[in-house]
Model the fold of this input.
Amino acid sequence: MCGLTSIIILTYNELYYTRKCIESIRIYTGVPYELVLVDNGSGDGTAEFLSSLQGAKVILNSSNLGFAAGCNQGLAAAAGENILLLNNDTVVTPNWLGNMLGCLDSRNDIGLVGPCSNYVGSGNQVEVSYGSIREMIEFARRFNLPDPSKWRQHSSYWLSGFCLLGKKWLFDLVGPFDQRFKTGSWEDVDYSVRVTAAGYKLFVAGDVFIHHYGNRSFRGNKISLAAVQAENARQFYNKWAKR
Done:
């Protein structure tokens, strides 16, 4: 297991959560990485904060281009042989990236790897009882003890894009995220299906737990998640019904 991992994070306001996310990356990431930060027109000081981060690659958009377009900008700027897409409303934990890379590198037919979380819609959610981030870190420290026996092929046909790891060559092979999916919803489902169609498997690193606040950009910016999901679901089924 070696090589640089490009951690791509999209932001749209919600500076409080972005700070916590990046702080946790700095503390708990023990393998080589670079930060690729794409801001979609924030107006709350996020752009200024990102620009102040030494060594990070920062892309500042003047408006909200959506999750898919922002991811594609990040992918184009990434220098790592591994790509990690991460939502800004997450808190990463001890051993998180090392364990995920171990899973990814364990088989040649693995395309994408996701972690377990308290808030994820794609089947890799676990029950938790912690009441604070400090308690969460202690929970995760035990949960994240490296254990290859917990790496498993995913039972669902998609992995959530809140935290998604793959090789750069795979993203080059499958191509960019489909920008018909606006704002942020269903583009991860579409990408998972495309990866599977290319002959690669979706895996869950069952020895990785990451805290996810969930949909903060929707809630904080008063965007209707239900409306976005409905439209993007329509786009998805229209696209794949023809295949």
